[in-house]
Amino acid sequence: MALDAYWASRASLIAEERSLRRDTAYIANLTESEKKAEEIIRKIRAREAKTVWSVEHEEIPALFPGMEFLTARKLIEETQLFKIFRKMPKGGLLHVHLDATVDTEVLFRIALKHSAIHVRVPGPLAADAAFRPLPEFWALPVSQFGIAADIASSDYVGGTWIPLREARDRCSLGAEVFDDWVIGSMRVNSTEAYKTHNSATKVWQKFFSTFVVSKVSLILFKPVYEEYVYEFLRSSIEDGIMYVEARIDFRFKTMIGDDGEDNVDHAQWVETFGQVTDRIMQELKEQGREDEFYRARIIYTAARFVSKEELEWYLEDCIALKQKFPHIIAGFDLIGDENMQHPLTYHAEPLLRFKERTKELGLDIPFIFHVGQTLGDGNCADQNLFDAILLGTKRIGHGFSMAKHPLLMKICRERGILLEVCPISNEILRLTSSMPMHPLPIFFNNGVPIALSSDDPAVFGNLILSYDYYQVLVSSEVSGLMTLAVTARDSIQFSTLEDSEKRELLQIWERRWKAFVEEICTLTP
Amino acid sequence: MALDAYWASRASLIAEERSLRRDTAYIANLTESEKKAEEIIRKIRAREAKTVWSVEHEEIPALFPGMEFLTARKLIEETQLFKIFRKMPKGGLLHVHLDATVDTEVLFRIALKHSAIHVRVPGPLAADAAFRPLPEFWALPVSQFGIAADIASSDYVGGTWIPLREARDRCSLGAEVFDDWVIGSMRVNSTEAYKTHNSATKVWQKFFSTFVVSKVSLILFKPVYEEYVYEFLRSSIEDGIMYVEARIDFRFKTMIGDDGEDNVDHAQWVETFGQVTDRIMQELKEQGREDEFYRARIIYTAARFVSKEELEWYLEDCIALKQKFPHIIAGFDLIGDENMQHPLTYHAEPLLRFKERTKELGLDIPFIFHVGQTLGDGNCADQNLFDAILLGTKRIGHGFSMAKHPLLMKICRERGILLEVCPISNEILRLTSSMPMHPLPIFFNNGVPIALSSDDPAVFGNLILSYDYYQVLVSSEVSGLMTLAVTARDSIQFSTLEDSEKRELLQIWERRWKAFVEEICTLTP
């Protein structure tokens, strides 16, 4: 074979493989500005790969692009690339758990404002951080308010509720220690992720415990919940997110109301969510910023661990909420550690019945299942992928182990089943050690539709989606700015919006994208 | 959909995906004993997943099956599963670098026997291990022998050659420190792999340095080389390996002969290798063990970093050796860090010419390229996969990043291009953090032929292939004993042997396999 013929075959083989990718068609029709912007981004990436990610660092033994997020975060924030991506219009945020969306420090500040919120521990708070239990919070009715006390004093009787603000002010270990203890209990830190809990099983234990603290005892208090939803949506908008499908965990049947009574039902949760959304849309409109936010909806999530009989209740509850709030309820999902809890096969019967029921009722409540969030090969969590597809899931939450399944990836490509990929979540939950080990390029090369999401940003510290965008972009030489553009577009295309709404939102995105691209074109790489 | 119909669709979807796997056809025709053995192995695996890999350990924060090899090795050795796999007939060892095959302690003992071997360092050996340089060895002619001295004394003049044995005996830091220093310089230890050098780029630096010590200065001395080849083949046979294609690095044009002169040419290297092989076959025959070893051949490897003009010399050298030793020279390869050195495109011209030349000469010297040994997505090392295939590679060494390439995996499946997968090597070189993150299940599920290999066992400590078998087996619930049987069979089918030889070797393997299976059947799981 002559050299010329060799180069020709090579180009054609590479092109044949790339033809499966969803960004290939988009790249074939770029505007001149897009071409220029792509080039500038690639140059900045190449420069920073050397100037930021290949130098010797005093404290970090090995730097590389896409390395462990919790170790790299400060360095990421200093890069030009990150600063650029903060401004990108990101389309929809399709995979996020409401109760892990707001910065834990902000949540803590919100909680401190409410005198109903109390804290307790089983015994005096230890001076040694290693021996401190998780804090337990609760919003009490006025009649049961506790009295101020030093939670670290040997006089403290384990189990006694102390008003949160007073507990903090009186804590003899100091307010700073108190804050670190509370905030640390709601986050996974780098020592936990990369040392003490460095396995998919172990880190999940810590991950789960953060919810026990924040969700169960702080967020399920309506005054906090309202502020929480507001903070979440406002900060998402600042990050370029234009549309949200938030997963809300409806496991608990009520939350505590303003009066301290545990009687606020699911309809009120959804109603409040809708009211907060409307308020934000109104505020933005008044500021002439209506292009920045389209809407927020809720994916109803129940717990995977419940019995199939109990699941029936949640499915009916979801139907009732959909009937009452058709524009807010977007779909149904099951959550919890797939590796430890019931597989979809266990719930197949009620889930199949739910499909029949919603069909009869003329309701569109697609399944949007969390599945394949595992390192297992052929374990239940991995096999869940088959069931999600057979049950007609509209999208797949995570689908991490999908990379092992060529046939399922083909089905996703052909039927248009999008994977909600959460890169930083996967890394901190130790499904991958770093982004270069992440299967995302496998999904891209197999033409699976992808949207990038942040999953549990309050727990992982990836509080803006730009972090995930950054980690994806610096870990590849194939993917580029246009790959991210396509994922952002797909986050709209594969949302649960009506077709006409998708078109409308896409038009808004295109306007903002054009402006973003023009801004990149003014940069010197 | 009724539940029954659901189960039927599910079974059919899973079966459709599994149909691509190479073990599926084999599993369809198992003997009763094989079925029983498979079941026993799966039971033992499930039991040990709990009793060994899910317990709390005093020193290791997180245990799990397939975890970091250097941390887990002692635990692996104690398992019943590992002890079973020590006895499995493993077929061919297709990917191993001769100069990293023999336990470094054994190499050191061999070196100590030869009075010609000297050692030196740039200055007195430091008491603090952190400040010790790599030892440099050389075999000197009698006329240049050095005198005994304390290499750690402040009187030692940097660069002075000391006879190795005397240097060890006189070392004022003690023989044990001396031994640790020498042996440690030829291995990657767990602190290096998992802490100080924990990235693909950093650990490669340490990896490379081990060769500078062992290969350049110890193994390239013919008396050592001869013993080294013998030790390698004998220990491989003890591990159930029946056939070997060893990569020999022919970068240096000569090695040092018995007389201390640096003039032993490549033909003598190959001839010695052949003689040692013959000797072992003779020994085995005398012991009635001829079933245990079929033959050993050499894959000629040149350095990737040479200029394409220099490469011509090596290609011609390879042709000359093939003409002289047609039964020993099995193929041609290029080695070195793909991420840093010339891509295949750089060498395309001489490589294409080589193909023409060998065709004209009627020689069968297939390319067996190391490619895709990278975490890169679209970098040169990843792109090398396209070139290897276009250049007609017979097999692929590593091909780690092949998981990203659906089209290339399809080509491998259809054209019968086997991937030589080296699980523990990949893990220690930080392409994967652990076996559950390794892309091997992706290769299996895409029907790519696979052989498992140890790569550089002396450096990584995976001195028997059973370690790699073990790590693969415990990281999956799909793969089982029969998956490993198929990889062992494929290591014969995809070897460079003639078809008649393959049939003969396969028959021998089947005899031994049958006995192995029967032995498993006697075990209580």
UniProtKB/TrEMBL annotation, chains A, B:
Stretches of the chain forming a coiled coil according to its record: none
Keyword Protein biosynthesis: no
Taxonomy, superkingdom: Eukaryota
Biological process according to GO: adenosine catabolic process; inosine biosynthetic process; purine ribonucleoside monophosphate biosynthetic process
Residue ranges constituting the Adenosine deaminase domain according to the UniProt record: 193-507
GO molecular function, one term: adenosine deaminase activity
Domain Adenosine/AMP deaminase N-terminal: start-end pairs: 6-84
Protein keywords: Hydrolase, Metal-binding, Secreted, Signal, Zinc
Cofactor annotation: Zn(2+)
Alphabetized InterPro entries for the sequence: A/AMP_deam_AS, A_deaminase_dom, A_deaminase_N, ADGF, Ado/ade_deaminase, Metal_Hydrolase
Cellular component annotations (GO), alphabetically ordered: extracellular space
Enzymatic reactions: adenosine + H2O + H(+) = inosine + NH4(+)
EC number: 3.5.4.4
Regions that span the bilayer: none
Subcellular location: Secreted
Similarity section: Belongs to the metallo-dependent hydrolases superfamily. Adenosine and AMP deaminases family. ADGF subfamily.
Record's protein name: Adenosine deaminase
